[in-house]
């Protein structure tokens, strides 16, 4: 069962280090916590076959150099690792030595040793070892060890943070703390409260399958791909597409190990649960079944019954500082689940590129009035082509695909007589009755019908393999794999996300949806990339997500992608657009762009970092937050520093 986190379950064996994965069977969810559910097994086989048919890079690449933590000698590292093995068991510590080739794998068989979608050299962001804790107490042991030996540690839950750095640590030679392999229990699902508590290694697939198995009328909320961890995605502030799509906003309660080694529960979890009535005879400790890590201070640990009911508790609301930061290792997290309801997905196509401003202006009041119940997506028609899984090679040229080529190709994807398409809006309406949904649909249709030549289509109007059907699933909380298909656009495809926050405002001026779109389009053209924009449009802001797809075997493409990212961040910042999330290697530049009042936010973050983590052991550099030990030593990759990541690398020159 994927709900078992026991060390003896054998789950998670063969994480991908040093193996040729081309021929391996894809791990299933019943044999591995990060595996694929049976219902998607064939889809995974097909997706992998398509990706591998486009692959020219070798499955496995020999290592050139040994990765060591900064400032630690080889002998010192060996001694420290021996100590860690003694503490956690030899089988739970893997040294990532030069005998371990680098294996990028693919989404379902991803590495925990480096960034599979490398944008710098493949071996640049590599860890020195991976450690697999089995419970909160072992996480505390690892933190104590890291402080003693001054070794940076980098926690991951699943390590599928693709497009943002995957499983890679920002500081090469860090020890990756892979929580998912042994800490993958669904601790609790409360059908009445509509909530759950999960450990780091619970994927969307696993949570969904368990809810189905129990027959509970609850939805999860998942991002476009379902293999990530529920917990990891939320603390990186990922989003999904049901009305519970803001993952961090719908969490309730965390358990963390702080860099000091202390365990903290946030929210109502900070208050102990009800204690047993006094007994005439002393009860044996742990008789309630509490695990070792739960029993603290000599009392049986019954979690507070309102831990998953109220987020803030009493005093400052601190959960936020543990998202997109390096202040703690999250070992458990609570989430609200949505009661299942009726739903109807649809798409609306728009004929002209410059319809964008009007579309956004129509979405805004619909979203503010909550007539749009979720975060709908507005996609450029080029995505319709890419998500068919067919390569861009029908267009023979290096330079970006012109609008008329995209339009001609895409026209086959819509029902005949549909006319031209430039933008596609994917929405879903929710309600307990058909009448309620029909009423909402009528309002939405009427609003968008103001745009000439727009077309409203239901799933029954399009072909069985049209992407709209996968939106139906994702927008009702059913995790899938379909979104992998656009990775076939170029061979050996990898991608980076450029994801600024933009006002939900369509009109003219420098700070509107059209302005950022024009800017992004112009920079993509300049650096020779096709532009894949998806807008996740909320009532007052949109996540404008441009997906930069590049061939990871092509150094020139990598160099152009890096230059494009750096230009995008700089030019967007000049107009007040800042990223909500970014790849590890661009974190410093993004953090730098939040510069109001001389960088007051950065100084505040650093003060917290230094107070909580005086030895700077936890994920140094993540989200551009460097502890005292690293700050100002040349680690930061800043705007205008002239650094060529493919030549100079990411480690400061002495
Ligand atoms: P995914 O769910 O996409 O596989 P990851 O496990 O890669 O996500 O997590 C996303 C990022 O969040 C990681 O790169 C890491 O920096 C951070 N992170 C993940 N899990 C934890 C955790 N349990 N505690 C602290 N930080 C974490």
From TrEMBL:
Gene Ontology molecular functions: D-lactate dehydrogenase (cytochrome) activity; D-lactate dehydrogenase (NAD+) activity; FAD binding
Names of the cofactor(s): FAD
Any single GO BP term: lactate catabolic process
Compositionally biased tracts (Pro residues): 273-283
Keywords: FAD, Flavoprotein, Oxidoreductase
Comp. bias regions, Polar residues: 24-33
Pfam family for this entry, one: FAD-oxidase_C
Residue ranges annotated for the FAD-binding PCMH-type domain, each copy included: 123-340
Ranges of Low complexity composition bias in the record: 1-10
InterPro entries the UniProt entry points to: Cytok_DH_C_sf, FAD-bd_oxidored_4_C, FAD-bd_PCMH, FAD-bd_PCMH-like_sf, FAD-bd_PCMH_sub1, FAD-bd_PCMH_sub2, FAD-linked_Oxase-like_C, Oxid_FAD_bind_N
Gene Ontology CC annotation, any one: mitochondrion
Region of interest (Disordered), ranges: 1-35, 265-302
Name under which the protein is recorded: FAD-binding PCMH-type domain-containing protein
Organism: Capronia epimyces CBS 606.96
């Amino acid at each position: 069962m994927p709900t078992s986190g026991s060390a003896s379950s054998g789950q998670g064996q063969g994480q991908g280090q040093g193996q040729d994965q081309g021929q391996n069977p894809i791990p299933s969810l019943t044999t591995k916590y990060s595996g694929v559910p049976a219902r998607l097994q064939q889809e995974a086989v097909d997706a992998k076959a398509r990706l591998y048919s486009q692959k020219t890079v070798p499955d496995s690449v020999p290592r050139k150099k040994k990765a060591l933590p900064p400032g630690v000698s080889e002998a010192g590292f060996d001694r420290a690792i021996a100590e860690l093995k003694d503490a956690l068991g030899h089988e739970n510590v893997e040294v990532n030595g030069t005998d371990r080739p680098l294996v990028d794998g693919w989404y379902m068989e991803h590495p925990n040793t480096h960034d599979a979608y490398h944008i710098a050299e493949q071996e640049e962001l590599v860890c020195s070892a991976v450690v697999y804790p089995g419970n909160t107490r072992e996480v505390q042991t690892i933190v104590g060890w890291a402080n003693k030996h001054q070794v940076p540690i980098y926690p991951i839950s699943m390590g599928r943070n693709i497009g943002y750095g995957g499983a890679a640590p920002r500081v090469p030679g860090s020890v990756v703390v892979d929580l998912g392999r042994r800490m993958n229990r669904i601790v609790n699902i409360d059908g009445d409260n509509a909530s759950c508590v999960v450990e780091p290694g619970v994927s969307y697939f696993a949570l969904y399958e368990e809810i189905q198995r129990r027959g509970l009328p609850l939805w999860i909320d998942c991002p476009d791909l379902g293999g990530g961890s529920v917990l990891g995605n939320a603390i990186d502030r990922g989003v999904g597409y049901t009305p519970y799509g803001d993952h961090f906003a719908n969490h309730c309660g965390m358990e963390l190990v702080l860099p000091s080694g202390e365990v903290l529960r946030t929210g109502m979890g900070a208050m102990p649960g009800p204690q047993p009535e006094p007994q005439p005879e002393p009860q044996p400790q742990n008789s309630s079944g509490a695990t070792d890590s739960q029993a603290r201070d000599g009392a049986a640990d019954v979690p507070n019954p309102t831990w998953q009911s109220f987020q803030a508790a009493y005093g400052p609301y601190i959960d936020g500082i543990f998202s997109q930061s390096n202040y703690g290792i999250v070992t458990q997290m609570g989430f609200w689940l949505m009661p299942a309801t009726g739903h109807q997905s649809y798409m609306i196509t728009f004929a002209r590129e410059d319809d964008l401003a009007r579309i956004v202006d129509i979405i805004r009041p619909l979203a503010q009035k909550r007539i749009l119940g979720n975060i709908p997506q507005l996609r450029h028609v080029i995505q319709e082509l890419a998500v068919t899984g067919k390569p861009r090679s029908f267009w023979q040229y290096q330079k970006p695909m012109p609008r008329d080529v995209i339009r001609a190709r895409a026209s086959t994807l819509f029902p005949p007589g549909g006319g031209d398409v430039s933008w596609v809006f994917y929405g879903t309406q929710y309600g307990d009755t058909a009448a309620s949904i029909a009423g909402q649909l009528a309002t939405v249709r009427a609003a968008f019908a103001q745009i000439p030549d727009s077309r409203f289509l239901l799933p029954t109007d399009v072909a069985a393999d049209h992407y709209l059907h996968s939106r139906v699933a994702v927008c009702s909380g059913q995790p899938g794999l379909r979104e992998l298909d656009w990775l076939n656009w170029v061979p050996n495809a990898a991608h980076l996300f450029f994801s600024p926050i933009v006002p939900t405002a369509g009109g003219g001026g420098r700070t509107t949806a059209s302005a950022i779109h024009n800017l992004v389009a112009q920079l993509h053209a300049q650096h020779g990339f096709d532009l894949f924009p998806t807008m996740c449009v909320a009532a007052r802001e949109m996540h404008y997500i441009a997906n930069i797809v590049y061939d990871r075997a092509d150094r020139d493409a990598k160099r152009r992608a890096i230059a494009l990212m750096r230009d995008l961040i700089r030019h967007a910042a000049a107009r007040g657009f800042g990223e909500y999330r970014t790849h590890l290697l661009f974190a410093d530049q993004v953090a730098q762009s939040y510069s109001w009042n001389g960088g007051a936010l950065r100084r505040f973050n650093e003060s917290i970092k230094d107070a909580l983590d005086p030895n700077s052991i936890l994920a140094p550099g993540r989200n551009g937050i460097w502890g005292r030990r690293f700050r100002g030593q040349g680690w930061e990759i800043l705007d205008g520093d002239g650094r060529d990541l493919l030549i100079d690398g990411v480690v400061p020159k002495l």
